[in-house]
Amino acid sequence: MTTLSCPLRSLLKHTDCLRRAAVSCHVLPGSPQRSLGASLWRRNFRALSHGATGELLSLQSGAKTSAASACSSSSDGQDVTQKLWSVYTETKRQTEVMSTSSVDPDTIFANNEMSLRDIEIYGFDYDYTLAFYSSHLHTLIFNIARDILITNHRYPEGLRKYEYIPDFAVRGLHYDVQKALLMKIDAFHYIQLGTVYRGLDPVPDEEVIAMYEGSHVPLEIMSDFYGKSTHEHTMKQFMDIFSLPEMTLLSCVNDFFMRHNIDYEPVHLYKDVKEAIRDVHVKGIMYRAVEADTEKYICYGEQSQAVLRKLSAYGKRMFLITNSPFDFVNRGMSYIVGEDWRDLFDVVIVQADKPSFFNDRRKPFRRVTDKGALLWDRIHRLERGQIYKQGNLYEFLRLTGWRGSKVLYFGDHIYSDLANQQLVICQQVSPHNPMNLKKVSNVAC
Questions:
Q1: Domain with 380 in it: what CATH number?
Q2: What are the residue numbers of the active site?
Q3: Which end of the chain offers a freer environment for a tag, N or C, measured as fewer CB atoms within 10 Å?
Q4: Which residues form a coiled coil (predicted)?
Q5: Residue 335 CB coordination number (10 Å)
């Protein structure tokens, strides 16, 4: 970010920069521009002394002193040009330094204000929203997918030495399928230099710039809104918390091939890892492991239970929409909330197949028995205490009549839970943070 593009309000946060900005008024003694510059500075500073910016100035120790000294005369013989470049360089450096010391990590940042008193219907996803998983789950997914690569896809046995690295990846990273690079890309499609990894090793900035002819990534090779990639979209974004083991496994396999000088096709590697991760879920391997040892993998949800029971006590209506199967959800919710958890929800939908749930009008709802069997009768209403599978948004709206700003839905996956179609249900949607439920439980409904 250049100095000219940096808001003055931001620069005022740096007292040191403000002090050095005095050079901007230091022109040759006796020059008419000097008095004009001083006059303009004093006028602008008086204007900034009012309102929100003035409030900011009042919090900065020495800010007014720095501003007042900005127009003091410079010493004879000083190189004004050199000093201006010095101020520019230092200010530019400080604007590029990221500081999070003043940010509370537990703060919830909202882009739409609302009053919970106006909310009558609450919707929830299950995984990582009502159910909080321990770190053992990511290790489980990684190990199972790694073994699937070795057993089913004939990958080298040497991959077994790789273990899951908990702090290696975060949600939101992009993976270049063709170049086998994991990286962070900002909202303006610029690669954040210093975040690019090939395997488990960082890639030098110079090499990154050479490969991409700069740091900007063209929109046409980015994945679409739902995070999906086509043959033309080489950048896959990982937004699901479940994708952390996938990113780590991709990097570990890349690392193994490079260290052993094995020639490979990055696209095939990506597809094989993706299929292995999918098998962990689709074939029920992960679900059976969690059901067999619930206490190991699911953190006891005191906050979830407190929120659900409080909302129910205040007469709020609730629904659950999840992609997970009934047996898995039932085991987890019984552990978190209690055997009566179904009595708290007006509608429960499992294996919803989000995000297709929001834009596919063809899939009807099917009722699921307590033993997991599917019934074939047509659904004319969604009944409390019953379990439904699949379905679609439009049928959901027709059968419940719920819509408008009185509905609030909590989910953890930006593509599956907060898709544009979701706005048809409600004008209020919230990407889930574990602290959300804690704070909701402390709000009077």
A1: 3.40.50.1000
A2: 125, 127
A3: N
A4: none
A5: 17
